[in-house]
Design brief:
CATH superfamily of the largest domain: Cell division protein FtsQ/DivIB
Number of domains: 2
Radius of gyration: 27 Å
Length: 257
């Protein structure tokens, strides 16, 4: 019984507190005309951004929000915020009126793309938090391209894991130019140097395979050059199988640890 009474008292105290907050928020709402729209882009160091501050302002115009010069008291900041949150490129938005500058302040946090997938007519980005970002032709960014027979679950799983390792490794991050997925899920990488294909397979032991590839590049490539091979196959555990340009196996073995 006592707990119930305390719960009721707490509820009414919370209700009274919220009423006071709303009252003062409305009473101290900035007055005058809107001086403009200030956009604050919140991003992590090195994050790739889809949109600039001017792009965000243009989005507001497309939403029919003509804010500069408008009476501050008539601006529905919640409506502006809700419309911005519908943008699939944004992960978070905050909107408020500044009593000092008399401007509408937009705090925008964008989703961060890791790579783009082009599979038939389907084109979309995969974000760094393992999500899907719809492709907007107005706002394109330069990220690794993955083509071929790419199912979404595979893009969010094995392909994501491989590209994350590549992007976080200073040796590999600029090493490859293309990622292609075959019908059987086999991932093929194309390096910047030479024309060979690097066959990674489907078993996601990516770190081990890249370690073997690095050893092969350090031990074998300096002796024969990049043009000596048509393909390197890392499908098999602990081995790099190289096929020469004439199609014959040129090197089968395990790189040195």
């Amino acid at each position: 019984m006592i707990k119930k009474i305390l719960y009721i008292i707490g509820f009414f105290l919370l209700l009274a507190y919220l009423s006071v907050v709303v009252y003062f928020a409305l009473r101290h709402r900035p007055s005058g005309k809107c001086s403009g729209v200030d956009v604050e882009m919140i991003s992590k160091s090195g994050q790739i951004a889809f949109m600039t501050r001017d792009d965000v302002r243009k989005e507001l115009e497309l939403m029919k929000f003509d804010l500069p010069g408008k009476e501050l008291g008539t601006i529905n900041i919640y409506e502006v915020e809700e419309n911005l949150r519908k943008n699939p490129l944004f992960s978070n938005t905050q909107v408020y009126l500044s009593p000092v500058s008399k401007s509408l302040v937009l705090q925008i946090e964008q989703k961060s793309p890791m790579f783009i997938v082009q599979a038939g007519d389907s084109v979309y980005y995969i974000s760094t938090d393992r999500g899907i970002i719809p492709c907007n032709p107005r706002y394109a960014v330069e990220v690794p391209l993955v083509t071929g027979h790419v199912e979404r679950d595979y893009a969010l799983g094995a392909v994501y894991d491989l590209i994350k390792i590549i992007k976080n490794d200073s040796y590999w991050q600029n090493f490859f130019t293309q990622v292609y997925v075959r019908k059987d899920g086999n991932i093929i990488l194309t390096p910047r140097l030479g024309t060979m294909q690097i066959i990674m397979g489907t078993t996601p032991k990516w770190r081990t395979k890249l370690h073997n590839l690095r050893a092969f590049c350090d031990e074998v490539i300096p002796r024969v050059g990049w043009e000596a091979y048509k393909s390197l196959n890392l499908e098999f555990n602990g081995q790099v199988i190289a096929k020469s340009v004439d199609g014959s196996p040129a090197h089968i073995g395990s790189p040195k640890e």
